[in-house]
Design brief:
It is built from eight helices and no strands. By secondary structure, the chain is mostly helical.
Length: about 180
């Protein structure tokens, strides 16, 4: 029997991990065994622009944190649990939520939050976002660097890589262009 090198083991592990993530996230396990997190993500919160004014809400939050914009987000806002966001400046957290999370999924703040009760844990999408953030950190923090010949400075994924402005990650390519 041929010995497997550590590089081959890593490739097999990465392939297994990606297949497992896809199965868990996109429901390839069958409807009866579909993880709750994948179901909750595939059932987006209705967004009604006339009911919620995201720009006004963000302006209000910016006014509320005035003078504290550079303090760590976890000392300015309640219930910041995502490790990569706790120590970010509070103003940067708002920008990440608005320009990163919301735009990447094509949603507004109400997808994960209850306006004026931002710290509430009522919506499963908030925990899903935390877990997806941890997945992105794992991929960017170690897995991408192990892919031979992958170029970039440094190679990076983010929410947009899969979501492309939709709550449910893209599973199919659009029709080919001529």
């Amino acid at each position: 029997m041929k010995d497997i090198t550590s590089k081959q083991r890593m490739k097999r592990f990465l392939a297994f991990l990606l297949v497992a993530l896809a199965a868990a996230m996109f429901g390839f396990l069958g409807e009866g065994r579909r993880p709750a997190a994948a179901f909750a993500q595939a059932t987006p919160t209705p967004n009604s622009p006339q009911d919620f004014d995201q720009a006004a809400a963000i302006l209000k939050l910016r006014a509320e944190i005035k003078g504290r914009e550079r303090e760590p987000a976890s000392s300015v806002f309640r219930n910041i649990q995502t490790p990569g966001l706790k120590d970010r400046p509070a103003a940067q957290l708002l920008a990440i939520m608005e320009m990163g999370s919301a735009r990447s999924l094509g949603v507004n703040c109400t997808h994960c939050h209850i306006p004026e009760k931002w710290e509430a844990e009522d919506k499963p999408q908030k925990q899903i976002a935390r877990e997806m953030s941890a997945m992105v950190t794992t991929i960017n923090g170690g897995l991408l660097s192990k892919i031979k010949n992958l170029k970039g400075t440094p190679p990076t994924i983010n929410c947009t890589t899969c979501h492309r402005g939709e709550t449910k990650p893209a599973l199919n390519l659009s029709a080919q262009r001529p």
